[in-house]
Specification:
This protein is 30% helix and 17% strand. It is α/β, with parallel strands linked by helices. Strands 1, 2, 3, 4, 5, 6 and 7 form a 7-stranded mixed β-sheet that branches.
Length: 200
Amino acid sequence: MRFSSFLLSLAVGTALTTAVPAANPSPTQAPIKPAKTRTKSSTHSPTSSAGLLAVDINTARPSSFWTCLAKTHQKVVIKGYGQACKHGGAVDKDFVRSYEAAKAVGIPHIDAYMFPCTGKQPTGLACKTPATQIAEFEAAIAAANMTLDSVWLDVEPGPDSGRPCAAWNLTPKTKNLALARQYVDLIRKSSLRWGVYANG
């Protein structure tokens, strides 16, 4: 699937997933294949996690949850960065804790995703630039010495364009396209293994 199709989807509302290879991928990395499900669970990682049943973790969970999860799942996808619309985007407060919990119970495949600030802000506060948001996300990964199969840019329009902090509902819609291109240009230069998840 070509990335140009993803960009077009921002204008017409088509849901799809595609992959963005890193600028300098490791020789041992296999190409990322498009995800097949809404759960972001079918990434193709360097350690062959394709098709594994995964869980999207977007908030802190108790230790009992992780112990139970490890018995049935080999992959989790953790929210690492959120809209934080009162701050213009921020690293998720539970990111590191969730990662450490997954590692502690031996879950072998871990991905992370960012849901960037892109919409209207409650008090007129502007979202941080794409470069700043990506830098904050990647800095958090580095600071915690995380080992991740893949990281994802989550592109999902908010449910109500009139709500504060609604995501990817810029008007005219061509602004969504321009903003997405900014993110793609940046993640293509990253040393991390990035992909794009889109659901319109």
